[in-house]
Every structure is written in C-alpha cells, then in structure tokens.
Amino acid sequence: MKVLVTGVAGFIGMHCAKRLLARGDEVVGIDNLSPYYSVELKKDRLKQLPRLKFHQVDIADAPALERIFDSARPQAVLHLAAQPGVRYSMANPHSYVQSNLVGFANLLECCRRYPPRHLVFASSSSVYGANAKLPWSESDNVDHPVSLYAATKKSNELMAHVYSHLYGLPATGLRYFTVYGPWGRPDMSPVLFAQAIMEGKPLQVFNHGDMQRDFTYIDDIVEGTLRVLDKPARYAIYNIGNHQPVALLDYIATLERALGKKALLEMKPMQPGEVKATYADTRALANAVGFEPATPLGDGLARFAEWFRNYYGYQ
Fold it and tell me: Which of 27, 72, 106, 252 is the most buried (most CB within 10 A)?
C-alpha cells in the first residue's frame, strides 16, 4: 500500500520507512529537517531509504501539507513528526506548540479531507506524568503531565479522538517508552552517555542514579508500530515498551560492557519535568496485534554500540 510517513528523517521514522519499503510498500516521506539536532544525521538516515519519495515540508505549513496529501492520496498515515524532548520544552515552548499542536491539527484536517484507512500517530510514555502506580496502563488517568512535551502528546490523543468520533477517522496512538538503538537521537542517553564514556568525560546521572526506564529496542518499536498500522481501529491507544524497567546504574553498566570502557559518574539532582520510573503494561498491545517487545537490553545496546563506533568514528 501507499504509506505517508511524517518525520521520516527521524529515528523511529527512518526505521519504520525502511521496513515498509523492504516489504514492498510505497512510501512518501515528509520531514522539515529541523536543526534541533544534527541535520547531517537526518540526511544520513535518509540515505538508508533509496526508494523513498521525500518532501522537505513542515507539517505546520498547512497548504504545503495539503498539496502532498492531494497528490499522494495515502492509504495509511504514520505520523511521527514532532518536536521531541522533555527538557527542551522548558527552553523553547513555542516550537512544541507549532509542531505538536498546530502541525497535528493540520495533519488531522488533511486526513479528514483525504481519508486514509488508518492513521497511526506517536504519543509518548511522558503522558503518564508522575503516576505512582506501576506498571502504567492505558486505562490510567493521564490528566497531570509534568512537561509541556507530555501535555502536547496528551493533546494529540484527545484531538485524534475528536476526529475519530466526528468524522469516522480510524486513529491509533502509540505511547512509546524510551526507544534506543542504531541511528538514535544524539540528545538521548545512549549517544550522550556513549560519547562521554569514550571521551573520558563525566556522565551526568540524575536523581543520583535512583531512576528506572523501560528501554525499548528500535526493532521492537518498528514491529509493533507496523502491526498496529496494518490493523485499523476506530480509535485506540497502546503502550509500546519492553515492560522490564531497568535501573539507571544497571543501564550504564550494560553500556560500559558494550563499549568496553568504564564511565565517570557525576551525580546530579532530579531535573524538572523528569519522572523517577517508567514501566509499560503491554497487555493491550499483545491482545490487539499478538506482539510485545522483548529484546534484552544487553543485546540491544551491543547493536547500538557497534553502530555508534562506526558512525561516530570511535574505535
């Protein structure tokens, strides 16, 4: 089928588009190549997608987005474009409003005018905020986000629900949990920590290491995402996480082994907007599409480390 992938030069977007192309789908990709992090990395990701029909477009540009929908008429839409990051949302809130709210509203309007058989969009585990009950389930209350980024993702879920209710748009939101792997974002911990370890610089360890994350390998994210994309629902929300939270210090030790070098640790207090632990209940995803992420952290970080050394030239 013909699939429109927004944020196609992003970490998850590139991997999903690559799998779609490999299985024979036609992929139309959109990305604004934002300078939030290395544009060179984004262009290198696009080089992994030789049969992609690429458009450099900002989803906040409504007329440009509609022209692409009008010409492409996609059968499915995988919406992964967004301004990411919890801490950056405190420094530059306007970019989150433009991309995650205005851009998403533009996308929904295009889906209303040119209805696909399914819209799948990226939400985030951040919507759970400081919920104390673990693991986090889709039925939990998520009315108390602790960052603007999280608030925009919760808003996306509500906006998609409205378009599903009013216009019959089949829409599914995926709450991703701490995605890592080759071609990962340089503002996330695997790359930040690996660079510090290889260069002998101290790692900033927040909340003095008393944190847990549900690290989810990119191949599992892709598998779950495409299974959901292929199974339209009127409206649904699913967690996609490894459902095995790992203590931050254990994660660092696993990365040290993958890189063959010890880290220097600099203990720091908890950062505003962050949460102590994330933990996905994935039973709803398993019941819907027969899949749960399960790649062990050691295996995933070994593959990440191999890519990291090659791409960044650390030998």
Answer: 27
